[in-house]
Amino acid sequence: MCRIELSQNLRQFKLSGNKRIAAALFLYFLDRNKALYRGNEKVINDSTLVAITIMVAESRAEEKDTMVLLLLNFLK
Question: Would you place residue 62 in the very low, low, confident or very high pLDDT band (cuts 50, 70, 90)?
Fold first, then answer.
């Protein structure tokens, strides 16, 4: 997964101001980068995915770099 692309997507989330759009874009990003499933098995369970999505949507723009690092660690 490309760190620059994730960073750009997080910036886009903050600029939109719409948390539902941010959540949908985040899930789309994960799916497009094949980070939701490995084979037929979920990488992240549903409850954790909801928590991560809300965390990203609620985070402040100044926390973007921290969010990127945290998400990359989650997805390893």
Answer: confident
Q: Residue type for 52, please?
A: I
Give dist(CA 24, CA 36) in Å, integer: 13
DSSP string, 39-67: TTEESS-HHHHHHHHHHHHHS-GGGHHHH
Looking from the CA of 64 toward its CB, the CA atoms found within 13 Å total 15
* 2-57 confidence digits (pLDDT tens): 555 666 666 655 555 566 777 777 788 888 888 888 888 888 888 888 888 788 77
Closest CA to 55 of 25, 32, 23: 23
d(CA 15, CA 7): 13
Q: Are 26 and 13 in contact (CB under 8 A)?
A: yes
